[in-house]
Amino acid sequence: MIAKNRVGIVNYGVGNLMSVKRAVEHCGAEVALVDTPEGMDKVERLILPGVGAFGDCMLALDESGLRTALLNYVAESRPLLGICVGMQMLFDVGEEFGEHKGLGLVSGRVVAILPEHINGRVQKIPHIGWAELELPAGHKCGSWANTPLSQLNAGDCAYFVHSFTAIPDDSRHLIASSYYGNSMISAAIKKDNIVGVQFHPEKSGATGLKILSSFIS
Questions:
Q1: Cβ 17 vs Cβ 60: under 8 Å
Q2: What is the C-alpha separation between 171 and 189, in angstroms, rounded?
Q3: So what's the pLDDT on residue 182?
Q4: Taken in order 110, 61, 70, 46, is the CA torsion positive or negative?
Q5: Which one is catalytic: 84, 96, 100, 127?
Q6: Which end of the chain is more exposed for a tag (fewer CB within 10 A), N or C?
Q7: Is the model's pTM score more than 0.70?
Q8: Catalytic status, residue 202
């Protein structure tokens, strides 16, 4: 039985589960760490965290036995939020340390952020720190209405830690972008009942809590 206002966090041995759990609880939801397929049947919404390398996270998900259950969950049009590498895993392929298959829920690839010379200096990789969130160029809706970013304003900042960025095949799935030097970062994506954020909402202060609150509601 699905418990109303219960949010599940996929526990497959990867990700900063406790920080995400505390942030979601702060937003008023009950949280369950989901480590069995049956656990997904008892939550209203699901969060897929991820920290580290794309291939390692996919291997851990496969070894946990939760991959098929996660795909079935999404196929039932239930809400899923991917965070950091958890967002990257939603895509077809990740190129970190060779090519690795993702979940294939959103068409596209996860590619390296290339170092650039900025003002005579090479920007450091990984990208670590705060960056502004912006509506992508050509975004037709002109706002974040009807997305978990609906409480934000363009220019609000979020906290990033990553070396790779997702590139959706369909630009309509990109709902927020950011920049590291001259490199465009896919900061947030949305496709039907699936949302992903490259940054860490649990580390992004008021901005992150607004996003988690919107996802919960």
A1: no
A2: 9
A3: 85
A4: negative
A5: 84
A6: N
A7: yes
A8: yes
